[in-house]
Amino acid sequence: MPVLVLDAGNALFKSPLRSEDPSEKARAELLLDQMEAMGTAAMAVGARDLSLGVELLQKKGRGAKMKLLSANLTDTAGKALFPASTVVAVGGLKVGVIGASPEGDLQGLQGKPVIPAVLAEAKRLREKDKVEVVVVLAAVPYGLSRQLAQQGEGLDFVVQSHEGRGPGIAQQEGLATVIPPGERGRQLARLELSVDGAGPFVDASTVQRDQESLKMIEANITRTKERLAATKDETVRKALEETIATFETRRATLQQSVKTGATGARRTHLLSYKQLGTDVPSDPAVQKLVERIEPPGSAHH
């Protein structure tokens, strides 16, 4: 199965504030190196990636395969500091990936308004690069990511990172879906896409729930018909007949939904998480690198 690895940003530092602790830089460099080694295609530049300034990111980004992205981050002269997007081919599918940084002042840099910058880039990707899926790595507050999705013509997914929110559900906002990626590297979010259909992506778990609901409706219809056959009271019979009619209307709706999902007429997504706990073994070589920065027994180990 083709895989695309992305990071929504806010990955490198524990705080957006500058720290004089020398281990902070070493930790950030190690994280960037390991993301590169894992084949991460792109990362958005968030507030907690700029704690030591933009120079560290620009230096580490030179020649790297992993693209550091921001459609709206500029210097004081208004010059863009990072590419707005990148296009990645995954199993024959062209995916456009856009980065978004917080608005306002960021360590002396300027975060321009997110929504117009991202929508303009999405339009360019659709028209010029002919991408089939657009993913926004949104290192911005949750409320803004929802607004972006609601107004986001041309967007498919908005992967949000800013407040350190934990795992959640894929939330449909307009035609786009907001995805919570997990927090502080403790979870790995996995978004499985089926792209054989057409139109906006729908949640595959909704189709699964519809299948379960259909089974329940079928059982209710059977039981109600049994009660109808057993009673001769006309008042009760009328009420049962109305109940059966309601159930059958609901059944028809669910059958259509399940049929559409089963025939692949729609593109679907399915979100799940991998908890990165003690049951997931560490890579011994990487563990040694980590322990040079945060020795066993230290406060942050």
UniProtKB/TrEMBL annotation:
Highest taxon above the source species: Bacteria
GO terms for MF: hydrolase activity
Keywords, alphabetical: Coiled coil
UniProt GO BP: nucleotide catabolic process
Gene3D superfamilies according to UniProt: 3.60.21.10
A GO CC term assigned to this protein in UniProt: outer membrane-bounded periplasmic space
Keyword Coiled coil: yes
Keyword Iron on entry: no
Coiled-coil residues: 214-257
The protein, known as: Conserved uncharacterized protein
